[in-house]
Write a structure and sequence with these properties.
- By secondary structure, this protein is mainly β.
- The chain has 1 helix and 14 strands; from the N terminus they run H-E-E-E-E-E-E-E-E-E-E-E-E-E-E.
- It folds into 2 domains: about 90 residues; about 80 residues, Immunoglobulin-like (Sandwich).
- A hairpin with a 6-residue loop joins strand 13 and strand 14.
- The longest helix is centred in the N-terminal third of the chain and has 15 residues.
């Protein structure tokens, strides 16, 4: 009797279970996982994407083949990159840009290239313009899985970062300014 009950329970669990579909990198690691909400319906599922190093890249719901609800994205080392909402596959931009989180790969030193991350709720890097005084700044094209920008400070002292975006249909520009200290480079003579 126990065996029959156990077999019936297994059949019920398997038949009610969610179907899962995987896509793999050529090297064999999981690139994408889809957990479908209803058996036979491939248009609505929970999508999880992974980096080659097995870290989670992004996660969110797809409903009727459109991104919906809250989505999360991470850098390749697992640190938070972005979280925000989608409605019918369109990102919902927040009313204000909030307070950016800056993370540097190293200390800011004159003449030394340093990678920078800028994270904000609901806003992608491409939605922002980041400028800084006293430094050259470029998008970190060679390192997009880990950092957003690369900067090279020009002189010691305080460096200011201005993060802003222009609201669609409005001439209002939001801007936040942060300051960080740049250390002198002991290997160079600075002309200030």
């Amino acid at each position: 009797m126990k065996k029959i009950f156990l077999c019936i329970l297994i059949i019920i669990v398997v038949s009610c279970g969610h179907e899962t579909e995987y896509r793999y990198y050529p090297t064999g690691e999981i690139a994408e996982k889809k957990v479908f909400f209803q058996k036979g319906d491939t248009s609505s599922y929970l999508l999880t994407e992974y980096y080659l190093n097995k870290q989670m890249k992004c996660k969110g719901n797809v409903i009727n083949s459109l991104r919906e609800g809250v989505w999360h994205k991470w850098y390749a080392d697992g640190d938070w990159l972005w979280a925000g909402e989608y409605y019918k596959n369109e990102r919902v931009l927040p009313d204000t840009i909030g307070y950016p989180k800056y993370l540097f790969s190293d200390s800011l030193i004159v003449g030394k290239s340093t990678y920078v991350r800028v994270a904000l709720f609901g806003i992608y890097r491409r939605d922002l313009t980041v400028l800084c005084t006293n430094a050259s700044i470029l998008i970190a094209e060679d390192n997009l899985d880990l950092y957003d920008y690369v900067i090279v400070p020009r002189k010691s002292g305080f460096m200011s970062f201005a993060t802003f975006r222009e609201k669609e249909g409005e001439e209002i520009m939001e801007m936040l300014v942060d300051s960080f200290y740049v250390y002198p480079n002991k290997n160079e003579v600075l002309l200030e």
